[in-house]
Amino acid sequence: MKNRWIGALLTLPIAVLASEAAYRIAEPSAQFYPSGNCLVLALGAPSRADGTASALQRFRVEAAVATLRQRRCRGLLLSGGAVRNERIEALTMANLAKTLGVRADQLVIEPTARNTWQNVGCLHSRLLKVERVFVVSDSLHAQRAVRYACRQDARLCGRVVNAGVVPPIDQLWWSLPAAAWQGAAFLRDRLLFERHAGENGPLCGQRPPMSSSHQPRLW
Description:
This protein is an alpha/beta fold. It is about 45% helix and about 10% strand.
């Protein structure tokens, strides 16, 4: 038992350093892309059971709002369905964005996506309407979404770009397992889907019933 604890204590710093290095390697060079005719896409994350924003949602929305203002983009796309509970992720994130000063007419809610592949796929037609789409999440997750966009439609290569953020060190409780998951997803994609050994899921999920006040805006 003692040896196991020692092994865990030795492994943890290595895992932290490895994940931090991976996030920083994936950190984008989005500053080289021009601002203006653009959109910001915030990738979904589970809401709390009571409908309030989780720490992960807050991290993504705050980063997305900062990018929206810095880049002077037309609007903020929020993508995410009710995956882990009955709360639609995009709605929770939209409410949070409003509290941060984003106008309702700047928000586009996509309430069906159940994973990163669908975060991009459900918004495919809208992504083609602007010169640039800045994808916001942690840097590794945003990088994966950009890769998916290019796989789904070659016209999105170079149009959809990584604007992800390196998680702060005090968020290790989610950033460490998230880095491990992104690494596993990268290997899965390369070994299975990108070699056509398996079929990708549908580009978009089934649209849930929503009140008229929550219907997504269309440009």
